[in-house]
Every structure is written in C-alpha cells, then in structure tokens.
Amino acid sequence: MSNVLKQEEVETLRELIKDVDTAMLTTLTEEGLISRPMKTQEVEFDGDLWFFTKKETDKYKEILHDQEVNVAYAGKSYVSVRGRAEIVEDLAKKKELWSKAYEKMMKASYDDPDIVLIKVKAEAAEYWETGNFTKKIAFLYKRMTGQNSESADINETIELDK
Fold first, then answer.
1. pTM attached to this predicted model
2. 11, 75, 99, 137: which has the highest count of C-beta atoms within 10 A?
C-alpha cells in the first residue's frame, strides 16, 4: 500500500472519530469479549489511538495477555477499529496526553506509577455512515463477505496496515 493512500485513509478515519468523546474498547477475557467506555484522546490521530488506564484494572491484565482489541465509536458515523494494543509507561508521552479531566477522573497525576497508556495501533476500520460524510477515496469491502465494494453498500472498510 502506498504511503499516500495510507495517509488519505488515516485522514478519513480522523474525520470520522474526531468529535466522539467516548469510545468503547473491547478486549478478550478468559470468559470472552468485554467492552468498556474510554475517553478519546484530544490529539492528532496518526493511526494510533491512545487511552489512559491504571495497572489495577482488568483491561490492563487482558491486554498483557492478548493484544488484539477493537475500539468502537458512535457519532455522526459508526466506526469500528481493529488493532493491536500495547501498554506504554513512557512518562513524557503520559505528560503530553494528560489533562485536568484525567486528574479528576482517575484521582491521580500523570506521574503516578499506576497510571499507564494503552496504545492501539489501528490495523483496519469499518464504518457505517449516518450523515452526509463524503468519501474521500475508494475503500475495500470486508473480504470475509465475499462481496466486492460495488455490490455492497452497507458499510466501508479502511485497511490501514499492510
């Protein structure tokens, strides 16, 4: 995949999720899948999604065990992002992304050793349009359906990592 095409796809995804305050992060547990709300970062999206959490949470343990995650957004469009998560403890990155809202919500500061970042490297995203969002580029329809993009108008898929 060319760098130009990838940049256009990242820009499309940025436009779809930029105004959504809360995302739903889905991880895998021993019992199955579980989703929980996470505050969306107010930073320029470059293909990575960032979330704060604490080490004492189940999602922290689940990501250490299995990095495959999904992040869902509901706003002007519905967006489902598939990717790989990793735990990041970089103090400079935590400081860069930190805000007063987190201080109140997590009752801690960015330099608390229990506070960590979840970095999700987006691999693909599907979206369903609910408004008049204009497509910027041609997308591939999900291969699993066996349908091509001309015969399916239900949703669109963006492949970000090839």
1. 0.77
2. 75
